[in-house]
Amino acid sequence: MKNKLKILSFTFLFLIVSACSSVKFKDTKTVSSKLKWSERMALTLMENHPQSYMTDNVKEPKWDYVHGLVLTGFEKLYQKTDNINYFNYVKSYADSTINPDGIIPSYDASKYNIDMIEAGNILFLLYDKTKEAKYLTAMQTLRKQLDTQPRTSEGGFWHKKTYPNQMWLDGLYMGEAFYSHYTSKFENGKKLDDVAKQFEIIQKHLVDPKTGLLYHGWDESKKMAWANKTTGTSPNFWSRSLGWYAMALVDVLDNFPEKHPKRTELISYLNQLAPALAKVQDKSGMWFQVTDQGNREGNYLEASGTAMFAYAFAKGANKNYLPKSYKILAEKAFDGMTRDLVKVDENGLVTITQACAVAGLGGTPYRDGSYEYYVNERKQDNDPKATGPFILAALELNK
C-alpha cells in the first residue's frame, strides 16, 4: 500500500511539474516578424521585464536615467500606435517610483547628479493625460535641482557634485531635454537661453578642431588625471557620449520656437557634428566604440552609439535640421544593426548585442578615458542605452 501511495504521489508530482512547464511555455509570448522593429523591441522588453522598473535588470524600483530613456521610446511608440499597453508600461514605472504625494524616494537632490533629471521626460505626457498632481510635483522637484546645480565659471552644469568642475557630453541629454521642455511648457520659455548656454560651453571647450568630433568630458580645473593639462579635455572620443550629445540637440530643438534667436545656433552645432560623424561611419553602417579608431585592435562596432546616431540623423533630417542625405545614412546604420548586431529567437524576441554596458571618467575604480579603458569595459545584451534609442530610431525611420 505504501509503495502504491509513493508511486501515486510521484506521478501526481510529475504531472504538476509537467503542467507548470507546459503553462510556462504556452505563456511565452511570440513576437511577429511582421511587426515593425520598434514594436518587436518593445514587446520583447515587456516580455522579459513584466514590470517596467525591471528594464535595467534591477529587482526594486529606482529612479534612473536608463529607465527614462527606454520609456521615452515607449511613449513615442504609444503616440504612434495609440496602443494603451505602451502608455501603461510607462505609467507603471512612474507609479512604482513616485509616491502619491509626488516624492521620489530613490532620488536624492543633494547629490546634484544631472543623470537623475532625465527620467523626468516621461512625466509631461503622464501629467497631460491624467492630470495627477504627483507627476507635476515630481517635475517641479527635478526642476528645482537645476536652480542650484553647481556650475563652471561660465555657467555650465557640473555633471555631478562628486565630479566638480566637469561637464560630460552625456549631461547635455540628461539635463537639457527636460530643462527645455519644462521651461517652454511652464515658464514661457524664460530659461531657453540658459539651455543654449550649456551647448555653447560644450562647443567652446570639447570640439576637436581637427576632426570636428567632441571629447567625452572636460575638466575646467584641469586637475583630473584624465584631463589634458592645456585644454582640460579627456583623451578620446566615445561613440555613446557623442550619441547622447546628438540626441540632446535634436530633442532640445523641439522646444525652441522658430523665431528664438538661439535656435539657428543649435541647428548649426548639429550640422557641424553630423559630417564629422559621417566621416567615421564604418562601411557596415555602424560606428565603433572608440569613434575614430575603427581599425585599431580591440575596437568593435558598438550598438548604443550606432542607434543614437541613427535616431539623431533620422530625426534631424525629418525635422529639416539636417540635409535629407542624413536619413540615408541613418537607414544604413539601422540596417547594419539589424543585420549584424540583432538576434531574433524562435519566439521572435529581439536581442541587441555588442552594447557597452557603462563607461565614464574618474571615480572608483579610476577610469582614465584611455583607448584601452573604453574597449575593455563590459558589454551587455539588450542594454537599455541601446534598446531605447533603437526604438526611437525605428520610429523615425518607420522601420
From TrEMBL:
Superkingdom classification of source: Bacteria
Cross-referenced SUPFAM superfamilies: Six-hairpin glycosidases
PROSITE patterns membership: PROKAR_LIPOPROTEIN
UniProt GO BP: carbohydrate metabolic process
N-terminal signal peptide: 1-21
GO MF term set: hydrolase activity
Gene3D superfamilies documented for this protein: 1.50.10.10
Keyword Hydrolase annotated: yes
InterPro entries: 6-hairpin_glycosidase_sf, 6hp_glycosidase-like_sf, Glyco_hydro_88, PolySaccharide_Degr_Enz
The protein's name: Unsaturated rhamnogalacturonyl hydrolase
Source organism: Halpernia frigidisoli
